[in-house]
Amino acid sequence: MPCSERSSAPGRLTGDLLSPVPAPVSSASPPYIRPEAINSRAGAADSPEISLPTAGRMKVVNVGCDPSEVYRPEGDAENGKSKGDYRNFKDGPLMDRVYNTYLQMHTNQTVDFVQRKNEEYGGCHLRRMTIMEALDLLDNVVDESDPDVNFPNSYHAYQTAEGIRRAHPDKDWFHLVGLLHDIGKILALVGEPQWAVVGDTFPVGCKVQDSVVFRDSTFHNNPDMTNPLYNTKYGIYQPHCGLENVLMSWGHDEYMYKVMKHNKFALPQEAFYMVRFHSFYPWHTGGDYMHLCNEDDLRMLPWVKEFNKFDLYTKCGELPNPSELKPYYQSLIGKYCPDGQGEDETAPKDSPPASKKALHVTHQSWPASVNQYLYS
Ligand SMILES: O[C@H]1[C@H](O)[C@@H](O)[C@H](O)[C@@H](O)[C@H]1O
Ligand SMILES: [Fe+2]
Hints:
alcohol dehydrogenase (NADP+) activity; 13 helices; metal-binding; cytoplasm; two-stranded antiparallel ribbon; binds fe (ii) ion; disordered N terminus; disordered C terminus; binds 1,2,3,4,5,6-hexahydroxy-cyclohexane; globular
């Protein structure tokens, strides 16, 4: 069994994971698009404008991990990863890429940067696309911060969603959260560097706590580290001010949360919360930053942890077949996502036809290939 999807809560990070040996920094950032990792997909026929290379080495299968594994206490390490093999930030074939992404993130994510990005992307009114279109764009994003995934993020979306669906068959809104949670990574296709899109998040404006990955070897050139206002336990925050009042490092979590809010998704508070904080590992898994949390945060924490089991442990080389799964998820989109038409007078003239479910997102300049894909 290739996956290690389980019902037990993920353990706290161990000392080994917290103090990794820094890997050498590669000078050139690898490209965002890794065509060699993209499989030929049946779903590609729906979107002929984007040419998907076909030389993938991974297997595309109809279903994800074996559901019987969901309740199995330990993984079958013979054919796949066991729980302890995930999130290895010490060594592994992708370590240079992962370390370099975090080095840049921890150097450049400052209070000032985060404030600017929140303003820049807060409006969500410059472009429209359907949710499925946004999801399909993730065919072109390989997350460079992730030591466990070297295939396009669209597959990870279906893996997560299907894992949740198997374990929580009665909660269809939760299935949809699995599908949507990483859509914010489309920011990597509009010129945002990956360090401003992917990876674990952390609060800026206060002392960086111990469970942040590569904490000891990646923050030395961050200008906020020498600002005394930002280097106490609370920094610019009040005790137990609530995470909604904390400036998190900018990335796909906060962006997708804003998109969901702006588009008035009819999902429960838990759904919004899971999307917004799913990458905040130093909190939900590391147990840090509790001094900033209020009661709401603590009430939501079990949901974030529940989500995390599927987000993390469904990552495996057996890839689902999106074209087979799309009808089910399209029905959930129909149920929970308003169609967005006529809600936003500032939407551009080249928005998709009125019949399409629309997502208002904020992108000033899409690469030509993306525009063609969305609007032809
Ligand atoms: O939530 C996950 C998690 O934080 C991973 O460690 C990171 O690599 C991914 O970018 C993110 O989506
Ligand atoms: Fe994510």
